[in-house]
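Would you mind giving me a polypeptide sequence along with per-residue structure tokens?
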Amino acid sequence: MLLVVSGNDPEGLAREMARKIDRPRSPFVMERVLIASPLQGAAVGRVLARELGIVSALQFLPPGRFLWDVLVESFPETPRQNPLSKDLIALLLLEALSGDEPSPEAILPEGVPSPTDPDTRWDLSLVLAEILDRIVIYRPDWIRRWEASPVGSDCWSRMWAIIRRGIVEHRVSLLDRFSLLCHTHPERLSGLSFAKTPVHVFGHSLLPPSFMDFLQSLSRLTDVVIYQWQPSQQYYS
């Protein structure tokens, strides 16, 4: 079940989480709390400790880390480290920009000159990797379109074809598999560790649509509670 708890008091939301956590549960099974930053996790942990007396068998982690952990556990052939993390994308782009085939001009956006020195190539690779990483997270529909048809005329699809080479699966394809499995054969995932306890999503001002879709699929296996901070007690639209 997917549940949204709204409030204009962050500490009040943390107390509500404490009420949902305060139940008989195994000390050997971790309950996950997805937080926006370590500082936020520490603040929430203090409230939970005050309300519950002790905080145990709770894991505070960022959403991206939790998502990849779920995919790795769901599909054991998945590598522990994301093969298309931002740093690895930058290294693959650096290799492409340093070679002759294809030429750097063929993969760079229009108007961006081909870098001539190593430092500039690396800086440009980092910028392009950041953009591609955002595309993977926020525009998975572009990734699906690029992979469903031959390499297009735009530079981004050509860049994706280069970094995708040799990678069996990535975040978008694994999320598609996970969603399909949750909807068709949830019993295959119900015994895994992430499906044994509720998942708490606390204090995020923005989550990508693809991550919300992931939470929706996950809610077929276990309770997912989103604690959403609202700036007003009154309805607004």
